[in-house]
Amino acid sequence: MMKPKLKTLLQKPLHRLVITKPPLHLRTLTSVPPSQHQNQATAASMNTISTNPFIFLLNLCKNIWSLRNIHALLIVHGQVNNTLCQIKLVSLYGLLGHIQSARQVFDQISHPDLFAYKAMLRWYFLNDLYEDVIGFYNCLRMCLQAVDNVIFSIVLKACSETRDVDEGRKVHCLVVKAGSPDGFVLTGLVDMYAKCGEVDSSREVFDEIVDPSVVCWTSMIGGYVQNGFAEEGLALFDRMRSTLVEGNQYTFGIVVKACAKLGALHQGKWVHGYVIKTGIELNSYLVTAVVDMYVKCGAVSDARVMLNELCIVDIVSWTAMIVGYTQGGYPNEALRLFTDKKWIDISPNSVTIASVFSACAQLNNSYVGRSVHSLGIKLGLEDAGVNNALIDMYAKCNMIGDAHYLFGTVSKKDVVTWNSLIYGCTQNGQCYEALRLFCRMRLEYWWPDAVTVVSVLSACASLGALQVGSSLHAFCTKAGLPSCNVRVGTELLNFYAKCGDLKSARLVFDGMEEKNTITWSAMIGGCGMQGDFSGSLALFNDMMKEKVKPSDATFTTIISACGHTGRVGEGWRHFNLMCRRYNFVPSKKHYVCMIDLLARAGRLEEALDFMEKMPIQPDASVFGAFLHGCSLHSRFDLGEVAVSRMLDLHPQDASYYVLMSKLYASHGRWSEAYHVMELMKTRDLSKSPGCSVVQMDLDRNLPPLGMASQSY
Predict the structure, then answer these.
(1) Repeat PPR: residue ranges (predicted)?
(2) What is the model's pTM?
C-alpha cells in the first residue's frame, strides 16, 4: 500500500522536489564567511537534497507517526543505509524524544563519522540522559580517537549534572592535550569542578582564563556560594564589577543567595535596588532568590511587597513566598497566600503542596491538611517530597494511624520517610513503636542520619532504655556524630541525664566541639534533675564566661533546679536576672517553676500571692504545683482556697477535679475525694488515662549498628 504512493511521488517532475535555493536559516548562516568544512557540508547537503527526495520527505515529518512511515519507506526502497538519511533519522527521533529509536538507527550506520557521533551525543544531552552522554562519549573515544570543543562542552556539562569529578578530570586532561579550548569548554570546566565540590580546582581553571565571560564569572561565584563560601562569592562579585563585566539575571540571583546565607539584609537590598535601577528583567530565578533572601533575613513583609508588585506572578515566585512563610515561622500567612483567590489561576506543584502540609503541621490543622491532601491526589502530586511532608503533617497533628497507613503505601521510601514516622511516633508518646520502626529501618539496610538518631534517642530517654541508647551512642561515636553535630550531642547528653547517668552526660558535653544555648541548657537541667545544684550553677556561670546568651528555656531549667534543691534565693535572683538583664517576658513555664520553688520550700502564702499577681491566668500546671506544696507541708486550708478558685475558673476541666480529689485523699478525707469523682461523672467529665513504662529487652530486636548499609 505504501509503495505505489512513493512511486507516484518519484514519477513527478524532479524539479518539484528540488530546493532551488537555501532555506532562510542557511542564507543567514552563509552571510558570514564560512569555513571550508562548512562549505563542503552545505554543498553536500544541498546536492543530496536535490538528488534524494527522501531528505525532503524527512524534513516534512512533524510527529512520530509520520517519521515512522517515512522510515518504513526508506527500508522498503533500500535507502535506509544512506548515511545522510540515517543521520537525519537520528536527529528526528531525538527531536521527538524517542532516544532509543535514535540509537538503533545510529548503530546501523556502518562507519559513523564525528558529525554522526555529535548528533547522537547531542540528543542524549538534550533529553537529560547524562549517564548515557558519558558512556557514549567513551565509546566515541575508542572508535574515533577524535573530539572537539563542542563534545568537550557537552560531556563536561554531563559530568557536572552527575557530579562525576573523576570523568571530568579525564576530560580536563584531554582538553589540555588537545589545546586551544574555547570559552565554552573553560567555563564548563569551572562549572564542573564547582558543582563537584572541587572549588580550588575550579578557581585554578578560572584564574587561567584571560577574559572570562559573564557566564564564567557566574559559574565561579555560584561555585563558591553553593559550597558554603558565600563571603568569597561576594568578594569575587565585587572583583567582577571592577572589571566592568555586567552581571545577568543568574549572576544577581546567585549573589542574592549569598546574602541570604550570610543573613546580609543590607547587601541583599542593595543588590535588589541595583537590579531595579539597571532595568534587569526579573525572571523566575531572580524573583525566587530575592523573595527567599528577604524571608531568611527576617524581612518577610518586604518579600510580600515584592510579590505584590510583580506584573506577572508565576508558580515559582508564588511557591517561593509560601515556602518562605512556612520556613520563617509564619504558617498562617502561608495558608492565607495559598487560599487567596487572587492566585486561583496558579496550579500548585509538589513543592507548593509539601510546604502547605508543613504549615498545617505547624498549626496542628488537620482539617486544612486533609483538604490539601485531596487536592494533591486530584492533581497527581504524590512524589517523595509530598509523601514525606504528608506523613509528617499527620504525625504532628496526632493522627499517627493515618501516618502509619500512608507510610505503608509509599513504595519508594527514603531516609526522610523513615524519619518522619519515627519522629511522629516519638512525639505522640509511642516510643516503643519508634524503636521498633528503627529496628525495621536497619534491617532493611537504611543508614540512619542525624535526624534519625535524635528521634530514637528521645524515644530511649522517654522509655529509660539506657542499654539501647548506649548502643546507639556507640554507633554515633563511630560515625563521628556527637562531636561534629550539635543536635546529636545535645540529645545524647539529654538522654543520659534523663536516665540518671550524669557522668556519661558530662563526658558527651565535654567532648562536643560546638555547643549552643540548647546544649548548655540541657546540661544545666541534667544536673538539676539529679539534685546537683552546685553543678547547675557552675555550668551557668561557665556559660556566661563563654558569652553564650541564655534563652528563656535556660532560665526555666535553672529555676527548676533551684526548686528541686530548695534554693529559693537563687531562684528569685535568676528570675529577676531573666526579666531585668535579658528582658525576657516570663512565660507560663517560668511562673510554674517559681510557684513550685516557693511551694516546695513551704512558703505557700508567698506562692499564693505570686499566683494571684501573675499577668496570665493560672491553669492546671500552676495549681498542680501549688497543691503539691500544700500536700508536702500539710496546708489543707490553703489547698482548699486554691481548689475553689480553680473550679470557678475552669468548671469543665476534668484535670482540676482530679487535683482536688488527690488533695482530699492525701489528708485521708476519702468521702470528699469520692464525692469529687462522682461529681465528675455527673458532669460527664473524664480525664485521659495515664500510662507507665516497663523496661523491656529492646536491644534483642536491635540489629548490629555497624552493618553495611544499602539504599534502594
Answers:
(1) 213-243, 314-348, 414-448, 516-550, 653-687
(2) 0.68
